[in-house]
Design a protein that fits this description.
This protein is an alpha+beta fold and 100 residues long. The protein has one domain. The protein contains two helices and five strands; from the N terminus they run ββααβββ. A five-stranded mixed beta sheet has the order 3-2-1-4-5, covered by helices on one side.
Length: 100
């Protein structure tokens, strides 16, 4: 199993999107991709589009070449890390249970 990450895009209580990544791919660091995407994006909508466009470069374990690194998470569940990207595009690592 890889590292499971939930990303809440939006302010506390007002998450516009929740994304999920479960990557065990040695060439893919989901946290680093998130931090780079925040710098490249001009706002929350651009960030979500940027992250959803990221694909695995090859097949490793259950991560298949060409499949998405991040997906929309309709029912956030188990995770090792949780990040919130605020409307001002600040990345905050959260602890404990998070509410949209």
């Amino acid at each position: 199993m890889g590292e499971r990450i939930n990303i809440y895009v939006g302010d506390v209580g007002r998450a516009g999107a929740v994304l999920f990544s479960n990557s065990c791919h040695p060439e893919v660091d989901a946290e680093q991709i998130l931090r780079s995407a925040v710098k490249e994006s001009i706002g929350p909508t651009s960030l979500v589009a940027n992250l959803l466009a990221r694909k695995y470069p090859s097949t490793v374990g259950s991560n298949f070449e060409g499949s998405r690194v991040f997906s929309v998470d309709l029912e956030p569940g188990d995770h090792e890390k949780v990040f919130r990207v605020t409307s001002s595009m600040a990345v905050v690592e959260e602890t404990g249970d998070c509410a949209g």
